[in-house]
Predict the 3D structure of the following.
Amino acid sequence: LFYYILFWCFMSLIQPLLSSNIDVIGDVHGEIGALCSLLEQLGYDGNGNHPENRKIIFVGDLVDRGPDSLAVFYLVKNLVEQGNAQTILGNHELNLLIPADRSIPLVPKKKHGNHWFHELPEDMIRTSTSSTQFQRLATAKDRDSIRSFLSTLPVALENDDIRIVHACWDSSAVSQLKECQSAALEAFQQYEDVINTKTFSSELEGTLATQNQNPIKLLTSGKEELLAEGENEYFTGGKWRQTKRS
């Protein structure tokens, strides 16, 4: 019974933060060199051991955009398996789990910065003279490992002193997810199905509702609101946007 309870606890979407003696690292985005330098400066060895028994907490967005998302992924996976780190899903990890078409469940949508996962080169640096950047590309075996690991991750960590979330700690959303017994992708799709049965007065309002009413999306991406009068749409993440995150 003890091991069943322990297993259930660590498969839940809101998991316990195992230590308050921590270093918190966010949004590595495939920058393996910067991550390794930071861990060395903080005093960790190659397996994440620390002389003061500190633990590493990654707050998501480990991958995409940078030169070597695979190296970051495998390093973090090892640190977690050694018991020296915990990590949660960011929106970029979640995007690798969500299929572009549910009839093809293992193929996520191509988004700005994630073409490496599809084993495709992508121009990430655009100047007048150059539009190339080295990016290590995933293989089918890599994709299997990534999906398997990400499928076990929570969207938030907490203890009596600290709360860790990628984008937005919303008490109502957290309460809903504490009652949820599904993995992140399954829960995301269940909430999307409920939201999509509603009728929205406009496409934009529907987008806002999907963002703000899906607890998985809310915690990993944040709340969105319409741009105020006089604010212009802006280009980021590879597309023009008419909303902003708060």
Remarks:
- Residues 1-9 have pLDDT under 50 and may be disordered.
- The first strand starts at residue 14 and ends at 16.
- The beta strands are 14-16, 22-25, 55-58, 85-87, 156-158, 163-165, 224-226, 234-236, 239-241, 243-245.
